[in-house]
Amino acid sequence: MSSATVSTVRDFADLFGGADEPLGAVVDGAWAATGGGEIVVEDPATRLPLASVAEATDEDVDRAVASAHRAYRDVWRDLGGVRRAEILLAVADGIRRHADGLARLETYDTGKPLRQARSDVETAARYFAFYAGHADKIYGETIPGEGSYWTYTLREPYGVVAHVTPWNSPLSQMCRGVAPCLAAGNTVVVKPSEVTPLSSLAAARLFVEAGLPAGVCNVVAGYGATTGAALIAHPLVQHIGFTGSVATGRAILHGAAERIVGCNLELGGKSPTIVLPDADLEAAVTAGAIAVVRNAGQSCFATTRLIVHRSIAEEYGQRVAAAIGRLSVGPGIEDLDLGPVASEQQLRKVREAVAAGVAEGARLAVGGSRIEGLDGYFLSPAVLVDVRNDMRVAREEIFGPVQTVIPYDDVDEAVAIANDSSYGLAAGVFTRDVATAHRLARRLEAGQIQINRYPMGGVETPFGGYKQSGLGREKGLAALEHYTQLKTVIVAD
Length: 493
What we know:
There is one protein chain. 39% of the residues lie in helices and 22% in strands. By secondary structure, it is of the alpha/beta class. The protein has 2 domains: 9-267 and 471-488, Aldehyde Dehydrogenase, Chain A, domain 1, CATH 3.40.605; 271-459, 3-Layer(aba) Sandwich (Aldehyde Dehydrogenase, Chain A, domain 2). The strands form 6 sheets. The chain has a 7-stranded mixed β-sheet with strand order 14-15-16-13-12-18-19, with helices on both faces. A 6-stranded mixed β-sheet has the order 9-8-7-10-11-21, sandwiched between helices. It is globular.
């Protein structure tokens, strides 16, 4: 079942506009040579090279940010919401025109099944269409005074916003942040992960082809510690969006504090789902299995702590293990249930976490081993049962196809287990009692609660975390609040 060939940038000439390797940055709507070292991007399903990307130096980052600042000052800020909306709709159409090529590129770059990549591309287009509908509706308030004055408020853009995006869903994550920023009148510079930079670079060119003015969205490639650090430290960057690890988010927040600029941070999760005795067990089993399917479990949003009433925990664990054991695994381009994890480093991390869980007393019900006959970073999806919440597999974000089942005795204990985490991105509840579901939703310490199905939601549903899962909100109208700043104007009668 091993993939015999690997696609390269040359196979996606329509996306890259004939760019030569190593690929550089996209600045002012065109390919720009960059002066850093060469980064080889590989297909995780075959471990063969896809492309070479040249790292952006401090000087390259400065050029990209200066370009975005000029575009903000001279073009985008004062263009008006109606015209911005028209352009964002054209970008959405452009993404859809190139959907097949973008999906295949994303599959080769990330390893995810082709159907998931196609869904991600449509989601990317949907972000631009959704925020286009609000670009001319970013309103303030009128506030009555005490008789001698009146007040009104304005929501205004920041200027240049930096977006540092992750490797698991690079295109949709990029568009999730870029679309509301542009709708609000900001311009952006994106630094995608060095592991999966290709779709972000291609998209930046496609945006310009669709009518986005040059410089409004620039992309620079490179490592976080160098290119990313130069971007977030740049004095013309007025706001930062980041999705990734807590450690890197903490470093970004320190840097932002030095310059007194705001941040949107999404820093991962260890999302619990409470399964009550009266739950629709089949629906709860499906939720547990889907958690390891999406991006091979490499999703901060995935529910990876299944907190199940002891009276049904054994049956539930068996059913989840059976469902996950039936999943097919292979190269993403073959469009099976799961692809590989993103890298050798990630594969090692996931295998070590499974081994640690077993060593601490959990029981491995299925999976957890390398798959014979496949050359890439493939792992059979695993289920650990009889897990305690103090185990490493319950505390740390594994970011791989590993599911855990934790038994509980009463609902107060279930809530305590769910909230006993440094994370608070999302949580789930399965019960047929609607009143109980709403009570638990209020008690759970997470930014988004899913009831009786997981996952749910779309571009319109605000997303972000409590505790160390981050700051701010992406998606929905809430994102427009975080990518604008409030001005209050007080007028005498």
